[in-house]
Design a protein that fits this description.
Catalytic activity (chains A, B): L-fuconate = 2-dehydro-3-deoxy-L-fuconate + H2O
Number of strands of chain A: 12
Number of domains of chain A: 2
Mean pLDDT of chain A: 96
Keywords (chains A, B): Lyase, Magnesium, Metal-binding
Shape of chain A: globular
Distance between the termini of chain A: 44 Å
Enzyme class (chains A, B): lyase
Largest interface: A-B, 65 and 65 residues
EC number (chains A, B): 4.2.1.68
Structural class of chain A: alpha/beta
Oligomer: homodimer
Organism (chains A, B): Herbiconiux daphne
Strand content of chain A: 15-25%
CATH topology of the largest domain in chain A: TIM Barrel
CATH architecture of the largest domain in chain A: Alpha-Beta Barrel
Order of helices and strands of chain A: EEEHHHHHHHHHEHEHEHEHEHEHHEEEH
């Protein structure tokens, strides 16, 4: 038996706003940040569990406070018990009734639970000597179902249906694992498309994206319609007709505005429109999806929890489902979101970028391919070439594809030197 | 000109869990708490703005951290500018893009904005020498529309429609103000119905509720169906056929479970079923509303923001709309929720109880009557007889009715002695 002896939290902020990387219609000046968590045990193996919540600057200290509020569920606890029953551990955290009041199941406290859950998965995978995607992809259908809490979901998916989905994907698991190692997983790049870049930089980055083998790029839109038309024309002329161009409005519009705006961009052959309006608006997205067809609606990175994903699927409000590694309550909740997507036949194309989101979320796409949907068809992982050097296992992306890591763990461990170099001093806080 | 010179935050917790007051199917042991905020200026009047977020214990420190993250929007700012344009002030706080990432517009950060907005309204009302309900109820339709941000709402209500609603309520404003002073506003009581009480206490409290003039009581349900049937039988036998009995499941059920459970309780003539499932589940509530008709569905106390309320109304997912004073981003957001309810013809019956929620939310019902819906018909404010003594102007409830306060301010100022007596020491924190 071993015990959790310490929880270390760190407020880490990178001064990205000075470069206008990451600028979009709603987020003009993000400072990519991580509310970071390290779980330390007294086990002889010396292994630690690392996890974090990605934020964009101010308020990262609030997110750290959210993680610290969960220490009571961790300190002094039996590691094997927590890791041996990750479904029960998830429920214990999410159904702490006093903390649940602060959401419920959304915002700072829910993301804090996600960081803790992901840190525990990191530790569990390191103990197993496997990268998270292989650990999960090799668990039995029964073990996978055990991870999921079906409360609020049974009108869309039952435990029996979930078991059927996992079981249907058992044949061919080993072949698909090998296929990932042999041919990777499709990626698309958002690097060319930030609103803060001038036209020349846009064109140059579009050319580089094609040269780097990406089959899809994404442009931020929603600031000004004439700018969007000009930028899309430049992009389309640069990449030619065969490269897919997706657009992302970052929640900028109301319902009718989204429909009108996208109809004007339709001539540029748009792969999808992402986050056209509030991530809470199921009915609004459903109306937009009908109004902008055949352009599919993509969303999910700001969706608070599994209940929101359920409804978007029930209402035909999205055509591309975008999970995020640190928005919901961690790996367990993302697994049930993968199940819902499989049940409704919608492809999952994760949100990534920020700090460490690429490193984390790739594991979930691999699990989707190996053990849930069984397909890479119409699926790809977002790629932004930012800040990877700060991680122990930076993503390996070339020829327009992600190549799966083999280092044991979740992928979320940041280098100790980076953590100390970019630790935000409380004296700097407002 | 005067300036905000200091922001004082306090973590206040009352040890209510020792009495089982407030116990329900999801919240067995709440410690009613307030993440409290005091805005101090250098004005010669010495007036302060007080506001808070109600929580149920653990995590109240996270909520305080959320409020502190907003200090940069307050310290050193011109008071007249902030108070003179409360719509712009609201937008500045809600659209701080870095902080918005932590929601967006939900959970800890959104509630923190609510505390700040409400504290500013408290100061504004004190400066006007009016209780908040009179300050708001006497503003012009144009001034009221200015308070509201219509982003994400125009598919349900436009600024022009809002103006029409406010203008239609101008005639008779003075008479309705007087009517409130003469005959109060209907209340209902939840005091008899907590799950932790035994049958004898339940019957005694039901009798007392009738003796106190309440026309409606509310019972917590959802723990065990046989217990619910027994407790409802006791309650119905005690109060007779003419007193309305509402039920509250506190988010306990899945969709089909809610329908099945409530069909078994229907014989007891149920006034409404409150929070049958996840507060995020628009489509689920719509299905439940169809399945349990003619029992209406009531919900709202945990609804994160105006976009959720909009959808519940669009989808016919509720028949009773329950605003909460400290869940959304303060007075401004609750005003647009009152507008949406008026537009869709749904009565507003606020959630209250906790710490200070009765004191705060009554003002919004009075504004609804005076300046929005113009009606008390089918409307009532929840009343729980807890912790009122800690406020400068405790609610005045008798003959089953709330009686409006005349003390200037929002009603949310807690006595200094209570604030210091129940301040939670960080040493006690886990």
């Amino acid at each position: 038996m071993s015990t959790i002896t310490a929880i270390e939290t760190t407020d880490i902020r990178f001064p990205t706003s000075t470069m206008l990387d990451g600028s979009d219609a709603m987020n003009p000046d993000p400072d990519y940040s991580a509310a970071y968590l390290r779980i330390i045990t007294d086990a002889a193996d010396g292994l630690e569990g690392h996890g974090f919540v990605f934020t964009i600057g101010r308020g990262n200290d609030v997110q750290v406070a959210g993680i610290r509020a969960l220490e009571g569920h961790l300190l002094g606890r039996d590691v094997e018990e927590l890791l041996g029953s990750m479904g029960a551990t998830w429920r214990e955290l999410v159904y702490d009734s006093q903390l649940r009041w602060l959401g419920p199941e959304k915002g700072v406290m829910h993301m804090a639970i996600g960081a803790v859950v992901n840190a525990l998965w990191d530790l569990k995978a390191k103990r197993a000597g496997l990268p998270l995607w292989q650990l999960l992809g090799r668990m039995s259908p029964e073990e996978l179902v055990e991870l999921v809490d079906f409360r609020y979901l049974t009108d869309a998916i039952t435990p029996a249906e979930a078991l059927d989905i996992f079981r249907a994907a058992v044949p061919g698991r080993a072949e698909r694992e090998q296929a990932l190692l042999d041919s990777g997983y499709p990626a698309y790049t958002t690097s060319p498309g930030w609103l803060g870049y001038d036209d020349e930089k846009l064109a140059r980055l579009c050319r580089e994206a094609v040269d780097d083998g990406f089959a899809q790029i994404k442009l931020k839109v929603g600031g000004d319609i004439d700018d969007d038309i000009r930028r899309l024309r430049i992009a389309r002329e640069t990449v030619g007709p065969d490269i897919r161009i997706a657009t992302d409005a970052n929640q900028r519009w109301d319902v009718q505005q989204a429909i009108d705006w996208m109809r004007r961009l339709q001539p540029f052959d748009i792969a999808w429109i992402e986050e056209p309006t509030s991530p809470d608006d199921v009915l609004g997205h459903a109306a937009i999806a009908r109004g902008v067809a055949p352009i599919p609606v993509a969303t999910g990175e700001h969706m608070a929890n599994r209940v929101m994903f359920k409804q978007f699927l029930q209402a035909d409000a999205l055509g591309i489902l975008q999970i995020d590694a640190t928005r919901v309550a961690g790996v367990n909740e993302n697994i049930v979101i993968l199940l819902l997507a499989a049940k409704f036949g919608v492809p999952v194309c994760p949100h990534a970028g920020g700090v460490g989101l690429c490193e984390l979320v790739q594991h979930l796409s691999y699990v989707d391919f190996v053990a849930v949907s069984g397909s890479r068809e119409g699926r790809m992982i977002e790629f932004v070439d930012h800040l990877h050097e700060h991680f122990l296992a930076p993503v390996d992306v070339y020829d327009g594809r992600y190549w799966p890591p083999l280092l044991p763990g979740s992928g979320g461990e940041m280098r100790a030197s980076s953590r100390s170099e970019f630790e935000f001093e409380s004296a700097e806080r407002v």
